[in-house]
Here is the input.
Amino acid sequence: SALRTSKTLRRDARCMLPSLQHSLTAAVVIGYAGRVVVAKHRSNTVRTDKENTGESRMFNALSGIPALRPNKAARTEAAASGLVNTADRTPGAKLDIKTIVLVVHGVKSTETAGAAQVETVRALAAERGMTVQEVVTERPGHCETLVAEADLSGVDAIGVMGGDGTLREGVSGMLARTANDRCPIFVFPVGTGNNFAGDLGIRSIQDMFAVIDKGATHAVDAVKVTHPLGTTYSINCVTWGLAREAAETAEGWRLLGPLRYDLAGFYHILLDKLNFAKIGASVTVAPAPVPAAHEDYLMMFAQNTRCSGRGFTFCPLAKLDDGMFDLVAVKKSGIFRTIGLFNQVKTDGGHVEDPAVCYLQARTMALTAQDAGDLVNIDGEVNVGTPVTVDACQGAFLTLV
Here is the structure.
C-alpha cells in the first residue's frame, strides 16, 4: 500500500544518508519521493472548503484564547530569566547543602566523557566538604525508581547527571513520594538536551556548583500528561505531529551528528503527512473544550521551558514558575513557508509572529488524534497514544536556582 511504501522509503533513508556525506539534496529527494507516495493516499481524504480557500492558515485563536504575537523586543526581554519571580527566590533561610544523593547513568559513566564528568562532580564536592551518596542506574527509567525509594535521612538535595529526560525521571520519582518526604532536586546538565537547566542559566557542572553555593531554592512547575496508559510528568516539552516524528527519525540518523535534526525536519516537511486531530485548551483548571471536527495540523508543542531539542526557542515567553505551560499549534502553510518557520525557531523564536502559528499560554489542554497510531512524545523519551490531557502543576517541586 501507499503507507507501507512510505515506511519503506523512510527505512531506506536511514541507510542511504550516511553514505551520501550528509547531503541535504538526499533529504530533499527522499522527501519528495515519499510525498508523491503519500499523495496517493491523501487524495482519498476530502478537504473542507475552509482548507481549500486557505482560510485555515490564519490561526489567531484556539478554543477562544487569542494567539500571542510577541515581537523581537518582547522575546529578548523574556529570555533574560526563566522565572517570573526573580526578586525572592529563596523562601526561608539559605539551604546549606552538605549531603546530596547523586544519580549516575550506569552506561554513560563508564565512557570516557561520562567518567570525567563524574570525577569533576566528586572533586568539586570534595572542595566544599560535601558528602556525595552515589547511586547508579541500571536500566531506562531506573532514575525514577532510585529517587522515589531513596533514603533521604540527612540528605539536603538530590542531583541527577544527565539532561531533560533524566531530570524528568528524577522529578517523577520525587513527586511519587509523600509531600512531607521530599527535598530539592536539580540536574548537572550533561545530557543531549539541557533546556530546563538552560532556562535557569545553568550550562555546566561548574555553573551548578555555583548555584549550590548560593543555596537558593525555588518552587517550579511540572506538566502532568494523562494518557491511555496512565500519567506521565514532563519538565520540558510534549510534542505531536511533525515535531515528534522528525525527532524520532533523527534518532535513527545519529551517525550524521547534529545535522540529522535539520535533515529529519526537511524530510518530514516534504513528506507532508496528514495530522488530523482535535485540539482544545483552557486558561482555567476546567476541562479544555474539544472541537467537534478534526483538523489537519503540522504539529503541536506544549512546553514548560522556553526551548526544546537543541535549544530551539519554540516558546519564547515560557517561565518555569508561572503555573502555566506554553502551547504552540501550527497549521499547514506550504513547504517553503514551513521551512522559513523552522529557520525562525532556530534563531530567536520569530515563528510566533506568523499567522499560521497559534502561540498561547494555558493551564490545561486536550488532544485526540484521528489516526489511532499517532503518538505523543514526552520530553524526548516517552511515547504515548491519544487521547491525552495536559495539565500545568504549579510549584510541583523544589529546585536550586
Summary: The longest strand covers residues 388-400. Residues 13-29, 40-56 have pLDDT under 50 and may be disordered. Residues 24-42 form the longest helix (19 residues). Residues 165 and 381 are 6 Å apart (CA to CA).
